[in-house]
Amino acid sequence: MIVPYLRGYGTTRFLSDETFRNGQQSVLAVDTVALMDVLGIEQAVLAGADWGARTADIVAALWPERCSGLVSVSGYLIGSQQAGELPLAPEAERQWWYQYYFATERGRAGYERYRREFARLIWRTASPRWDFDDATFDRTAASLENPDHVAIVIHNYRWRIGLGDGEPQYDALERRLAEAPVINVPTITLEGDANGAPHPEPTSYAGKFSGPHSHRTVTGGIGHNLPQEAPEAFAQAVVAVHTQ
User: Fold this and answer.
1) Cut 0.85: pTM above it
2) What are 96-121's pLDDT values in tens digits?
3) Maximum Cα–Cα distance for the chain, whole Å?
4) Which residues in 143-206 belong to E strands, given as ranges?
5) What DSSP character marks residue 6?
């Protein structure tokens, strides 16, 4: 099993200081395919949550020949700038408070200064029944101490709502993603029964999976960080989708 850091996290580094710190959705999937190429992996089961789930979804949609199976927490997460610019109902908008915080320079400076405090707050609100200890948090929070982390996060959220430009070489990929392509590889979608973060209902995305697809709700107070809160259920899904 390979568990890579996404760009801007952990030990990832850019080769040049001049490279644009791009966090748009398609580029993270391009990174994944490039990693598979370097490692000589022609095809693999892709599994993830949050940014990882979106990235896995995109690889499965655009490069299905590289994906033998998909495990996606919170289901179909492919989006577009056009969709991101549409206003939501006030209660839904309130859940995305940090997206608008990041849209400001105050938010950028605040995240730079308080990234660990921010992460702890998100953990508590997105997984309200997860009784994690300081050691568990500290192991993950160490991945935020990356010189490009803030730039990647800020660009990702600003790009989503049309406040940041992507790079032209990815425009064709984004146009394909804006059409919300159907995923036809074998898929298991997962959701925790106590996810406190914004997430779609499973019935809303079931039709986006045209291949063998099943959904599992993981019970026991499991929140947004399902792979870490319920690692056995996550691993079982990976094994199961591999045999479908």
Assistant:
1) yes
2) 999 999 999 999 999 999 999 999 99
3) 49
4) 187-192
5) P
